[in-house]
Amino acid sequence: MSHKDISTFTISTTAPEGFEHEPDGSRDYWHHQALNTLPPHDFIAPYARHKTLPTPGIQNRKAWIVGSGIGGLAAAFYLLRDAHMPAENITILEEMTVEGGSMDGAGNPEEGYIIRGGREMNWNYDTLWDLFQDVPAAELPEGYSILDEYRIINDNDPNYSEARLMHKCGELLDAKDFGLSKSQQWELIRLMLKRKEELDDISIEDYFSEGFLNTNFWFLFRSMFAFKNCHSLLETKLYLHRFLDSIDGFADMSALVFPKYNQYDTFIKPLADMLRDKGVIFQFGTRVEDLDISFSGERKTVTGIRAVVTKDGEEEAKHINVGLGDLVFTLTGSMTEHTAYGDMENVPELTCDKHDPGDNSGWTLWKNLAKKSPVFGKPEKFYGNVDKSIWESATLTCKPSPLIDKLKTLSVNDPYSGRSVTGGIITITDSNWLLSITCNRQPHFPDQPDDTLVLWVYGLLMDKAGNRIPKTMAQCTGKEILTELCYHLNIEDQLDDIVANTKVRLALMPYITAQFMTRAAGDRPHAVPEGCTNLGLIGQFVETRNDIIFTMEASIRTARIGVYKLLNIPKQVPDISPTQYDIRNLIKGARALNSGKPFMGERLLHRLLDKTYFAHILPPLPEPEESKQYRFEEEMHDLLGKGSTVMHKFGVWLNSLRESLSDKK
Fold first, then answer.
1. Which of 59, 257, 401, 442 is deepest in the core (most CB within 10 A)?
2. Could you tell me which residues belong to the region Disordered (predicted)?
């Protein structure tokens, strides 16, 4: 197809041969050259927001999307926006009775609210914001987007924390003191310098020293992202690169931005409502267990979908024919499969085997795909050890009580003000369960009463008895978990009053960090596995070039890659934001790792740059002006050796260089 109304020469509506839909910013050196029409691999700017022409024949093609989590909804979005597929040709198949997948939020003030988990966002989740700047706002008038709402809230209510780490029953730690020795800082630097291919099947505890794993930095990092020491070192490395620009905000959470409401009401409902309004079909009560795939040499084409449909409490097998040219997008694995629920008086009871989720689960489809071809990965690497992937969350619905009074002393703003409260999680470092608690902006649900607060608690470690309650967290009722929390907050003497005004709902999730399990190349399938002509894979168990997982960004990215590749749309999904290559982030990250003190060689950089245009990229030195010369000489002694004639000559040369840089002539 060509469009003569655009140009007198032929305009192709599909990408040319060899076009890279998923570029890798870390792969090679990018430079301008003849016939290069594309920006750098990780270029994020309005130029990457261009609209494409309709894909040839798109009016007659259909798409089947398995799963209505953020990944499935994103696949529908990009089919509409960038492929121009008619909305009525898109069907989303969902096992549950409501969309959202793991991004849920429900309940009421009478029975208590529940949120299984939360999401932390930062400003360079570029694929996330690409999508939500085109989704109508939930509360602002027509013409505004979810991104507009998000920016207006966060620009006027900056997020930060004043109580990030706690120990000894309520005593706050100085979270800005990362507690990393020079050798422990080098452990991090060496990890960042390693190539990804060197880290297959290596765990965090295989690499880091025991001392490192007990530092404030590691408590900040692991609690913020939910890493256990048995988890993947490779994923830790990817997180370090992804959040290099945020390291100096770990201690006070100032690197993060949070929504006004819970994740379902903020993201899922507005996106799903937009898709429905356009005509996308949602089919609930449908569990997809297998795909019929035709193999022809290396080509793999889905021809049918095998599902079980639940209607009026009865299950019925159903086969869906996938026509020629139709597309299928499906979730692989599930973080929240087999969630066990409990409450104030009842303990959650797991129904899955520790080494296999069994039949009829959210893992069944991936297991069946993996039997057909190795290109679909190895799901057993992720679901095969529940002890390493499990943790539990508790949602507290609170009326005024001593717990709220204590919360006020730990918060940035009054919890009832509508502004940010704790600014993120408060982690109790000497908790045997490694408990964290947070209170986001209130109300957290649109229908929440004015006198009610919703708090969220999670415990990362499930293998130890509590400090106060002699059971593991997974063996406890909501009341017992609340008791353990109050012990660590030093308010246990007021427990009766707190219990009388608090409802607790529990979610014990056996696979919640399954995506962090140690893995090797090939264990996770690509968004479009090799040879697949009409199948895209989405979600947290899909391989991307450089991005991390356990984020909304990852699910949206996999969906976007699948749509662009399968339809050969002449548009790229930019690699992750290039902040990891920015010298400013490298410098301020090094300063933060050194607990705010100048790192070795930093004063030398100041001597070189402090009278130049580039002086602003350096963090200010913490000492007064009159002692800077002494500190510089002390640093040079450490670098070059005391009494060294080389140091003296170098100092003379450096001063001469500085003067020449500032010489007006």
1. 442
2. 1-24
The total number of structural domains that make up the chain: 3
If asked whether residues 395 and 499 sit together in one domain, one would say yes
Indicate if 398 and 458 belong to the same structural domain. yes
In this model, does residue 1 exceed pLDDT 50? no
Report whether pLDDT(412) > 80: yes
Which amino acid, one-letter code, is at 475?
Q
Does pLDDT of 497 surpass 60?
Answer: yes
Whole-model pTM?
0.94
Secondary structure of residue 643 in the 3-state scheme: coil
Predicted pLDDT at 626: 78
Residues 284 and 312 in one domain: yes
Copy the structure tokens of residue 44.
Answer: 């994020």
Q: What is the pLDDT of residue 635?
A: 79
pLDDT single digits (tens) 107-135: 999 999 999 998 889 999 999 999 999 99
**Is 387 in contact with 354 (CB distance < 8 Å)?**
yes
Between the CA of residue 639 and those of 609, 619, 632, 652, what are the distances in Å? 19, 20, 10, 16
* 652 pLDDT more than 90: no
Provide the annotated active-site residues: 120, 239
pLDDT score at 222: 97
Task: Show the domain range for 272.
Answer: 54-101+264-334+363-375+519-567
Query: Cα separation of 406 and 354, whole Å?
Result: 38
Helices marked H in 197-305 — which ranges? 204-207, 216-225, 233-242, 263, 269-278
Same domain for 398 and 482: yes
* Domain shared by 82 and 117, yes or no: no
Residues 110 and 94 in one domain: no
Distances (CA, A) of 269 to 73, 250, 353, 440, 578: 10, 30, 33, 19, 31
User: What three-state secondary structure class fits 662?
Assistant: helix
Report the run of H or E that residue 405 belongs to, with start and end: helix 402-410
For 10-21, how does the pLDDT look when each residue is reduced to its tens digit (9 = 90+)? 888 899 988 999
Position 611 scores a pLDDT of 84
